Predict the structure of Metalloreductase STEAP4.
Amino acid sequence: MSADRLSNMSKEVKPESVSLCPLGTTAAPEQELLCIFGTGDFGRSLGQRLLQTGYKIVYGSRRPHSCAPLPQGAQVTSHAAAAQSATLVFVCIHREHYDFLETLAPQLKGKVLVDVSNNLKKDLYPEANAEYLQRLIPGAHVVKAFNTLSAWGLQNGPSDASRQVYLCGNSAEAKQGVATVATKLGLTVLDRGSLSAARELEDFPLQLFPEWRLPLRLAIGLTAFFFFYVVMRDVVYTYVGQGKDISFRIMVSMANKVFPIVSLIMLSLCYLPGVIAAFLQLYRGTKYRRFPDWLDRWMLCRKQLGLLALSFAFLHVLYTLIIPIRHYVRFKIAASTIAKFKANQTLELDNTLAWRTDSYFSVGILGFGLYVLLGITSLPSVSNALSWREFSFIQSKLGYLTLFFCTFHTYLYGWNKFLSPSYYKWYTPPAYMLCLVVPTVVMVLKLLILLPCVDRSLTRIRRGWERTDPEDDSKNLLLT
Amino acid sequence: MSADRLSNMSKEVKPESVSLCPLGTTAAPEQELLCIFGTGDFGRSLGQRLLQTGYKIVYGSRRPHSCAPLPQGAQVTSHAAAAQSATLVFVCIHREHYDFLETLAPQLKGKVLVDVSNNLKKDLYPEANAEYLQRLIPGAHVVKAFNTLSAWGLQNGPSDASRQVYLCGNSAEAKQGVATVATKLGLTVLDRGSLSAARELEDFPLQLFPEWRLPLRLAIGLTAFFFFYVVMRDVVYTYVGQGKDISFRIMVSMANKVFPIVSLIMLSLCYLPGVIAAFLQLYRGTKYRRFPDWLDRWMLCRKQLGLLALSFAFLHVLYTLIIPIRHYVRFKIAASTIAKFKANQTLELDNTLAWRTDSYFSVGILGFGLYVLLGITSLPSVSNALSWREFSFIQSKLGYLTLFFCTFHTYLYGWNKFLSPSYYKWYTPPAYMLCLVVPTVVMVLKLLILLPCVDRSLTRIRRGWERTDPEDDSKNLLLT
Amino acid sequence: MSADRLSNMSKEVKPESVSLCPLGTTAAPEQELLCIFGTGDFGRSLGQRLLQTGYKIVYGSRRPHSCAPLPQGAQVTSHAAAAQSATLVFVCIHREHYDFLETLAPQLKGKVLVDVSNNLKKDLYPEANAEYLQRLIPGAHVVKAFNTLSAWGLQNGPSDASRQVYLCGNSAEAKQGVATVATKLGLTVLDRGSLSAARELEDFPLQLFPEWRLPLRLAIGLTAFFFFYVVMRDVVYTYVGQGKDISFRIMVSMANKVFPIVSLIMLSLCYLPGVIAAFLQLYRGTKYRRFPDWLDRWMLCRKQLGLLALSFAFLHVLYTLIIPIRHYVRFKIAASTIAKFKANQTLELDNTLAWRTDSYFSVGILGFGLYVLLGITSLPSVSNALSWREFSFIQSKLGYLTLFFCTFHTYLYGWNKFLSPSYYKWYTPPAYMLCLVVPTVVMVLKLLILLPCVDRSLTRIRRGWERTDPEDDSKNLLLT
């Protein structure tokens, strides 16, 4: 990616690249002058963007005459001169090099310093970069801002996500000034309070899928367990029992047993917390008491759970579809055909079996179809286009339908195996039976909630009603 | 989903949740004070968001001292006191509890009341909530706004869709004031006129896929008809004729006949209205006369038609790919192999058949590939990134190519069956023949339009030219 | 699509269409009056949008009394009167009809003329429309703007992409005025400088996938070459050698050889430039020297390369999955089964073969799964939601993992064929061997870069450090 940014920078200074280099800048009198320290990728992109929005820009550099190519229309002078000329200074410099700024303290006195810096990893330094900067130049008003934007994002115009600018600082006036500039750039400003919030702002760009951790761990754990379970019951059991080595089945057959199991369990885990929350509210008779943290955390990662479940289902589908081209399967079929012929029995199609297998496939396909639909509607741009009612319809109603189809698919797979003891090797049930527990529970609970009486009181609770509250009018005033 | 919102609220008040709780609020003098009635999810989220944007917030509550957790930095007082202190009051209360506001009429006189309420279903009340509020407090300037936003959307920053704020009211000044606040929140304001528009605004969040209804009904209708048709011709016919029960084929074989048929018909129905519109314009010799409503409605749901067609095609693909693992198919193949062997004939590969089936599959796959491409480009975020010319290129040029591939795929499937009478059971043609009618018509018409002469005059018409207009210069001035 | 716009226009003027027609407009005193020339699709949509935002609108038309339906609340008069009344005039007229504006020169003197026009194709006229307009009415201040928006986009509210408004003009004040209007419409303004930029702005909407050209050409070239190569080695060779016609295999078998090959090569070409760039930086010892243009261009189309590679992989998967339902394959299997039986040998499952084929499939599936994941995360709305670190993690780390899986998949396919000479027909290697070259090279180079020593110095360089620089402190100040 770094190379990516570089390429943009070089692109930026190429005359033919329309979207980047301004073709000359307006010379209006009322233009405000802003100063930028540092002529790196970010400094250049920021300057260019500001120029396009109609600001005048002066860069502060140690080598005003021999620095990297800058956007057209910007001036370059020494840091001191630049600082003098403007009231707002963007500090686009690595923290490691802040120290030299101390020498500029007099020129920077009373100025607004915007700290846009980020670190390579968390907790690299005892204090936030912005706080460090403030300590270096006590006379200036340091504002932390723009650090969540990338040079790339600035160049190509603010996209939906990078349109948010978080800023914090101790001087409200200073923040106001920075906010104005940000708004002119077409960005949305969110004030995060005093400079003590700088650390959090600096940690934003460093986060790596925080909300995916829990679901991922869960998925890996389940996969590992069921893989072990299946290998024991199939490979090891067969080897011990008949001394036959069917280890090769690990690659596809076993994988194709584990993936659907994990997928179904995780899908049902998306809907379990909602059901639990409902019962908790029914039990408490109010919605105004907070849920236990574990439930909160669980509910906040439902989307991730669902998407992981979908990806496992996707793998399951592919693994299923390649079955007939597997060497092993072809061998088996040829063998059975020859055996049938040798036995010389007249072949009879088992209608029930045909019905069962076909419905098994059919239900599975429909379930997967809905699965994919859920996945698509959880794409940001799609869910944004949905009204709240539409979104909840798809995610809850269709979601439960998907869960039902997939569970039913599994039951059809089990069919009559549930009873015949021959399947309980070493007194353990087949894996797919284990995986049916959670979804079954979820659906039973959901059915209970759908009972008119239960449903009614739940709705009342969610609209703000409270069971044992003397003056519940006041509560009722709350908008759900 | 309600649980979802709850979880957010609880998340909101947790100190560790970076993205939500402000870490202290600016104490700038020029901060404006806004008042919020009601401390429910929405009221809290709104307040928090306003605090982050730099406003001062005072909540009005019946129980100022014992109400749900509120965002840091907000004050809470009685409704009366709160109303007094601010000129702009957000009423985040259920309509059922508006009545008590009447008592506050004196304090609310001349204030701007923002009604953000929604109802659980349409036409629950004779008049819109906002109009009801205005009637209760005639002295106040009621503005309907923000009701299309969700508490969730407010917390997580405005996303592309929820960035639109529709407002309406009778006082332009009041609306101006609310618009300013909305803009500061990074939202786009759309004035919908007088308060009489409130009803429509309140119906927005309640709509459930209005533009999908027609296509869905169509899809269901077609599916039902063809399913019946196919079952009659196959299952019933075989049963009556040979007394053989092949009902099990319903699950997969029949489904896999119906889905592609419906898919192809609906795909062609996406392109039929465009063609009709073109001919209508040619016939009228102008583009300035409105189309009949049915055509309008049809053209406005083309995207939905296409997406449904795609989903049916998707199911068709899955149903086709599981064919070889079906018990029935394996049985058939084994039987035929054994029969071949018994017959002891030397096997000869039919080259023509090989060519035909392979091209049949190949064309189908390419068609489906394009299908998927169309689907992807119709994702909001993708189509937004396309220039108008690019979008029309994909949706029309590639769209017709897809239609051609899929139709050709079906013709290859039919091959020589068209002529042999044995396929016309009970004098009815096979279903796939029926489904070929519409696409064939569409493509023939499209070819006509592409004829240079026709194309030329059509282009002229679409650029504003009119056939029999004395002073068509003036018309020509219209920009197409 | 033109029909599409038409439908919208007619929709617009239908009373029942909520989202479009304003239900009465505010009568606030401070409303500003804007003038629009031309009552075509664009003029009407623009006017309506402006009305909704709270402006007063007057249309200038040659036939004020008999022109197409206009948005409610707008007045219509003659061009002259309209021009007089407002200071800002939107010229929504085809360039061909500008000439008549010359007659309005006196009324338009000193006014701001906004040229929103586009042409049907590039370089249709010697000078840009806006420059032509300026030449016609030297007294007016022409500003080029809004031409990248569509009537459709204006009606349905600005979406993420169409939110950018590029404007250019010679008068800064005039541009400021237009910018204010644009901002009120919720659009982001980008000043592109003087009127000489008009041509570029007018070319924006006409571009047709400029960044896709190179990758597409490459894909087509590779496909053509390998198709020819495979056909020669298989069909022609067999025909010449054994006089057997297996041409039918072109449709599926050959296609399914070519697609995966092209896919793998293009995937590796996504990662090659990054590696080259790294080595170039290592060699130069700095990141501040621009890359050669060819490398820049290459790096800027990596995303497109990757998406094309994905689509080829997608086709490969489908072509693979239909194998077992092909007539030819079924014939082959039946034949071999019969042969086996005749030979009357006892069938023995080749465990190694089973292992190999299964792992071959398994690795392929996992690779494809990652492939799809990469594709999904490159959707605008998804990648926007990722932090910079998350995006680079997926696109580089997971990207290389994908490359590894797919390459390994191909090696497993080759297995022991690499050595047996029988596969080198006409002394040429099988196609899949050729396609292994690039990915292997890329991965070896990447491994070199990952060596601690190399990695360390590369990181230093990318943070701004330079090898042989006397005063590198100053350089160090640049923020990467």
About this structure: The longest helix of chain B spans residues 210-242.
